Structures are given as C-alpha cells and as structure tokens.
Amino acid sequence: MPTRIESVCLQTQAAKAKLTVLTGQSKTGEGQRMSHFTRIRTKLRNPEYIRQAMKTMGHAELRQSGMVFGHDGHRRRVDLVFGVGDGQVGFKSGKGGYESVADWWTVGIEAEDFLGRLNREYALQAVMGETRKQGFSVQKTEKLKDGSVRVVVERWV
C-alpha cells in the first residue's frame, strides 16, 4: 500500500497587538518613591511557548517565579522573569492569559514594540508546537515581505 505525505502551509500574521494597560505609573506624596510598573494584558496562555519565544528573541529566563525588579527597588510578584534590555520583564498568570509586568522605563524598550514582536514569535512557537503534537514535522519556515511567517509542515499518513 503506498504511503501518502500530508503537507500543510500555515501563516502567522504580523498584526500589531492591541495592548490593554491595566495599571500604570503611580505617583505618591512629596518625598516618597514612585513606581513605574505597568501590567499589560496579553493573549499569551502557554508558559512554555512564552519561554521559547523569549529565548528565540535572545532573552534569558532569570527565574521561573519570584519578583521582577524595577526602578528604585520596586518589585512585583510574577510567575516568569526574563532579562530584557537594562531591566526585567515578568509574566503573571491572570484571567484569560498572562500579563506582562515591567518597569518599561528601566527596561529601556517601548512596551508596544516589544510585545508586538513577542506576540508574533509566540504565535510562531504555538503553531510549531501544536502541529508537532498532531504528528507533523516542520519542514521550513520563511519570513515573508509583509512580516508574516510561512510555516510548511508535513506528516506521513
């Protein structure tokens, strides 16, 4: 009986992520310290794909859980912590997915740009991970001119 190869081509779009800022800069009274932490709700749900995406982007995981530190010793409890730029970006499990938690002033990177790149890389990692779970192997990935990524997968059936 002849064997057939099933081949699928998938594309992830380079759409700009809509970011929902949950909390921003909080000012305190005269002579008191100021926190610059921002929590941003994301659509990221799988911590393993977050780890893979951050690693691919060149950011090392510092701790699986603990504190993310910002300006003037301020800190927030998170589930994942990565070194990014001059600071740290954390992820905290929340309703419907993970929130990014960072003092973006300390990190030195625009939150919207960074999270847009992270969302694209996360989508690619999720597509590749989920197709592998279904028995496919990734044959080729290709970045297209419009910023989307073409992924070719196949499996023996």
H/E element order: EEEHEEEEEEHHEE
What's the total count of β strands? Answer: 11
How much β-strand is present in the residues? 35-45%
| Fraction of residues in H or I helices | 10-25%
How does this model look, in words?
This protein is of the alpha+beta class and 157 residues long. It has one domain (5-156). It is 24% helix and 39% strand. It is built from 3 helices and 11 strands, in the order βββαββββββααββ. The protein has helices at 47-56, 104-107, 111-133; strands at 5-12, 20-23, 38-41, 61-63, 66-69, 75-78, 80-84, 87-94, 97-102, 137-143, 149-156. The strands form 3 sheets. Strands 2-3-9-8-7-4 form a 6-stranded antiparallel β-sheet. It has a 3-stranded antiparallel β-sheet with strand order 1-11-10, with helices on one face. A two-stranded antiparallel ribbon has the order 5-6. β7 and β8 (87-94) form a beta hairpin. α1 (47-56) crosses α3. It is elongated, with a radius of gyration of 19 Å. It starts with a strand and ends with a strand. Residues 13-34 have low confidence and may be disordered.
Q: What attributes does this structure have?
A:
alpha+beta; 3 helices; 157 residues; 3-stranded antiparallel β-sheet
